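Q: Hi! New to this. If I give you a protein sequence and the SMILES for zinc ion, can you show me the bound structure?
A: Yes, paste them in.
Q: Okay, here:
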Amino acid sequence: MARIKKGDTVVVLSGKDKGKTGKVLKVWPEEARALVERINLVKHFERRSQQNQAGGIVEREGALALSKLALLCPKCRKPSRIGWRLSADGGKQRICRRCQEIVN
Ligand SMILES: [Zn+2]
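A: Thanks. Here is the predicted structure of the protein with zinc ion bound:
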């Protein structure tokens, strides 16, 4: 199970967007990569199309390594390490190691 999932708010730990926060748009757990809203923008050159009448340069998010991201805990509002705790039904729950709250 991935530490970070779609919809989480994360903090970038390194690279050109270090310190920025954004919402996770997509995660590829096998590749340990994620797409984060407005983070790691990469310029793409696009041809004119039906959707994009003007064509030209557009910015899009590029995938980031999960190791460069930390979950921003929704409870304590700090970048946190994730721990695991077994739930009553035997499943795993993510917990914030900082405040020990369950983060789902
Ligand atoms: Zn917390």
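A: The radius of gyration is 17 Å. Let me know if you'd like me to explain how to read the tokens.
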